[in-house]
Design brief:
The chain contains 16 helices and 13 strands. With about 425 residues, it is an alpha/beta fold. The protein folds into two domains: about 150 residues, 3-Deoxy-D-manno-octulosonic-acid transferase, N-terminal domain (Rossmann fold, 3-Layer(aba) Sandwich), CATH 3.40.50.11720; about 180 residues, Rossmann fold. Strand 11, helix 11 and strand 12 form a beta-alpha-beta unit.
């Protein structure tokens, strides 16, 4: 009588596991709410007045995005709080007049602070606001997003920017994408400022100040991303052998994540190609000098390709990564993302048919004048107001701050007027009574 056939038993176990999963998730959610609520009471005491502008940086690697804008913001007499999740953030070494820098911890500790902020404006490059742990605070009037690379706004995971109120962007195609997503998802149109790309302006000025590169042998930089679609995983020994055979100076700069996620593969390659006269392995913290002295860059889907092409004004060799856009906002729009569409204008694709002829590919890339025209096109597309980006971005943030202050005053005045009217009606009713 207690016999249960295997099919029914499997189904029951599936149902039970599902119930336990729901219960575990619900308990975890309840725990987080209680944790945020407890932290909120403390934060409410600490932040009883609005902070005019909060800048949130999730990791010190994005400091280059914020630094030029903060330099401009600091010229205004408006108190600003810079909140970072990196205890050794470079911001702490700077002496600002109007910007206070705070370390707010990592993970849930940081989110417990952010989720209950009391501020006029919050400025960040972090996507997925109000999607995962980082929730919109009801005490914040305006969230402004800036991208950390010159690429499509839709190259974030689904709904990555839906809950921001305003954008600082570098090109008209990005604004078009924002409007398309708003229409598709029924989002109220956001305020958008085409300001340019501040960190590229800084790099450009640095290149100009460095002057001409001394005469040198033709130099090739291989700077892959990490993962199964990365160049080293796909081509590995075959590509490095082909590069060595060119007789050119070869520099390999692996992605930092490769040393953690692809350690075995990378150690084998570094052990095999350990002659610095043939292959130089570069791990400089700052990639400026290695980019400056290279004549061509070979990469896959790394943002460094666009920096190399648009700032250093040099060609790239790229690979077809078979990038799966389905988890991204780009999947909602029926066109190839600009990030991939622009690549043929910047250089030549590396594939199975030409990897063994890499010397000719390199020479064509460097000597073909059409790629110079392509780089000019890329700059027009995604880098407006070159040299003015930080000032324009700062001005937009200050404008949004003043807008929110005005809106709050108007709302308070309306509330006061409504209260006076209600009090008058009560007095009249009492007098008649």
């Amino acid at each position: 009588m207690l016999y249960i056939d295997p099919g029914t038993g499997g189904m029951l176990f599936t149902v039970l596991f599902g119930i336990f999963g729901v219960l575990a998730f619900s308990l975890r959610s309840l725990f987080m709410k209680l944790k945020y609520s407890s932290a909120g009471k403390q934060n409410a005491r600490i932040s009883s007045t609005k902070i005019p502008v909060v800048i949130f940086n999730e990791h010190k690697r994005y400091w280059n995005i914020f630094e030029p804008i903060m330099d401009e913001l600091d010229k205004n007499d408006i108190p600003i709080t810079y909140m970072t999740c990196s205890e050794d953030d470079p911001a702490f070494k700077r002496k600002f007049k109007n910007i206070n820098c705070e370390y707010i911890g990592e993970g849930n500790k940081a989110f417990s602070r952010l989720n209950l902020l009391n501020a006029n404006v919050v400025f960040a490059t972090t996507p997925s606001l109000d999607v995962f742990q980082w929730k919109r605070s009801k005490y914040v009037d305006c969230y402004i997003h800036i991208m950390h690379a010159a690429k499509d706004l839709t190259m974030y995971r689904m709904y990555g920017t839906d809950h921001y109120d305003a954008f600082i962007l570098g090109g008209e195609y990005q604004e078009k994408q924002a409007r398309q997503m708003e229409e598709m998802r029924g989002i109220k149109p956001r305020d958008i400022a085409l300001c340019g790309v501040p960190y590229l302006d800084v790099m450009k000025k640095r290149v100009e100040d460095a002057g001409e590169v001394p005469p040198h042998d033709r130099t090739v930089l291989l700077a892959p991303s990490w993962g199964e679609s990365g160049i080293l995983t796909r081509f590995g020994d075959r590509l490095i052998d082909a590069l060595i055979s060119t007789g050119y100076t070869i520099i390999v700069r692996p992605h930092p994540q490769s040393f953690a996620s692809e350690k075995d593969m990378l150690e084998k390659l570094m052990a095999k190609y350990n002659d610095p006269s043939k292959v130089e392995w570069n791990r400089d913290t700052d990639n400026f000098e290695v980019l400056r002295r290279s004549d061509v860059l070979i990469s896959d889907y790394s943002a460094v390709m666009f920096e190399f092409a648009m700032v250093f004004n040099k060609p790239v060799i790229y690979t077809d990564t078979k990038f799966d856009i389905r988890p991204y906002d780009a999947d909602w729009i029926d066109e190839v993302p600009w990030t991939f569409r622009i690549l043929p204008d910047l250089g030549i694709e590396l594939n199975e048919s030409n990897v063994n002829d890499i010397r000719n590919v390199i020479d064509r890339c460097i000597e073909d004048p059409s790629f110079t025209t392509g780089r000019e096109k890329a700059r027009r597309d995604t880098w407006v107001h070159i040299g003015e980006s930080a000032k324009r971005s700062s001005d937009f943030i200050i404008k949004k701050y003043h807008d929110t202050v005005s809106d709050n005053i108007s709302e308070e005045q309306k509330t006061d007027t409504d209260n006076r009217k209600n009090n008058k009606r009560i007095r009249l009713a009492n007098s008649r009574g």
